[in-house]
Amino acid sequence: MFLEELKMTSHKEEEIFEMKQEYPYVIRRITPLAGRSLLVPWHWHQEPEFITVKEGVLEYVTLDKRVFIRQGEGVFVNANVLHQLFTPSPDVPIYYDVHMFQREFAAPAKSLIDTKYLAPLLQCEAVTLVHLGPDSPLQNSILDKLERLARWEKEEAFGYELKSRNLLSELLLELFEDQKENILKEQEPCFYSESRLKTMLIYIQEHYMENISLEDIAGAAHIGERECLRCFQKMLHITPVAYLNSYRIQVACGLLRFTGDSIVEIAMKTGFSSGSYFGKIFRRHMNCTPKEYRKN
């Protein structure tokens, strides 16, 4: 599978389009196109996520952490956590699995299991991104279970759905034990800044095709331009304009691959003022021209 453009809900969370209500557990097997450093831009989704790297190195970034995941390692990313993915070596092949599930798959809402184990883990502000490595016995066991889940899902042997749910429960208990100190520690939640940032990201994702300014982006969250810049720099370590251009390029990649629109038409559709400026920004992000990207 290639990731070119995330499918968003009306609130600009990622919609996990493969997720089925009757079996809310999805495994994506990802092989990104060569030459791209940014694999997935800033986004979030309600589903918790595990990633295991099969080949290459993946750089995973949240608002408070940045980790490099190598072959045989993985990460857990909690529900509704803003994150993005890079590859530090764009020309080196990379292959990774993404496991996502709805909370109700592990236990019904407000059940004893949910309130005693799932809610404390999945709502813990201190557990945003967990780097899983083979040196820790608990984490190595989690990685082994993720491998078994991927194998069962691929083979689709009789009963794999029940076996998978049971194994996921064991895996989540091990994750709870691994993060028990953070879960039980009282944290001062910081919802306000992230809420404002999400509002501004939603505005950009809804208006990227327009000639929007820093003032427009800041106004979406009812803050000043200076506070907007501070918020982006503090939490994403980039400027609002840099994020806007990055998102536009992400959309343009999908249009180049899946439509017959001319490069100038795509430039206009994604909010660039001219084809030449589009080409300049595209090359800066993708290390190739739009024409080369479409051809390859």
Automatic annotation (TrEMBL):
Key word Transcription present: yes
UniProt KW Transcription regulation keyword: yes
Record-given protein name: AraC-like DNA-binding protein
Record-linked CDD domains: cupin_RmlC-like
UniProt domain HTH araC/xylS-type: residue ranges: 198-296
GO terms of molecular function: DNA-binding transcription factor activity; sequence-specific DNA binding
InterPro entries per record: Cupin_2, Homeodomain-like_sf, HTH-like, HTH_AraC, HTH_AraC-typ_CS, RmlC-like_jellyroll, Tscrpt_reg_AraC-type_HTH
SUPFAM superfamilies: Homeodomain-like, Regulatory protein AraC
Keyword terms of this UniProt record: DNA-binding, Transcription, Transcription regulation
Gene3D superfamilies (UniProt xref): Homeodomain-like, Jelly Rolls
